[in-house]
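Record type: monomer structure entry
Structure origin: computed from sequence
Chain ID: A
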Amino acid sequence: MERLQIQETKRSPLIDFDPQTGIMTMSGKSIPEYTDVFYNPITEWVTHYCENPAEETTFDCNFEYLNSSSKKVLLDMLKMVKAKDIPLKVKWRHEKDLDDIMDEGVLLGKLCDIEFEMCPYELEDDEEFEF
């Protein structure tokens, strides 16, 4: 199975899913104009991955923002992996001062019954957050 890599844009996150390591990285903003068009190939990839997964799967998420349709797709992917009894961890990275992103991680974890590892970080002085 090939690694899935999609470059980040202003409206869609970086995707780097490595089937050998089981690390699924998602980073950036997720507000694609057509959520299904963007996420369908990713969901299909995860479906195939579940047939022959790594020993452990880790979703490493670092979202600046994600809209409700993106949350639904992420939730569905996590539930899919969990339903196959694949050992699963979720690292939920968020800027220390962005409580709304942290809260999204807590809520998603409850909805899929997975305890997320919350990973707060601080931006460097020269980094800027922009919408």
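Annotation 1: The helical segments are 35-49, 68-83, 99-112.
Annotation 2: DSSP finds three helices and six strands in the chain.
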